[in-house]
């Protein structure tokens, strides 16, 4: 898989369309969760896209700390249906963590994880920091990862 990291202003129109289409397909249609996917936060995000050939296969949205956010974060983590089961999700998380820790020197990363993926995220050293809560009709848990010393 080829990985591309871009800010909002670096995205071409077709790239943005492909990202939004994938997010709507996974989070709105597949998960049967009608919510406002285009949330006004893409402009401040770092967009990490995994391509197989010219096709978007995996995606995550990364944020650096800000006035609204104490820690860096990873969100909108998705692997398109046809690429699931191929270790693409693990590769996506490794790449997302690498970008934040190595390219942006972030020591702590927070996620709002869908609770059914708790074990998956724990395998990347994320630990729960909240009780399970309902968000958009899906159980979630907040998790935190602190970079390990080398």
From TrEMBL:
Gene3D superfamilies: 3.40.630.30. Pfam families: Acetyltransf_10 (PF13673). Residues 6-148 form the N-acetyltransferase domain. This is ElaA protein. Transmembrane segments: none annotated. It comes from the Bacteria.
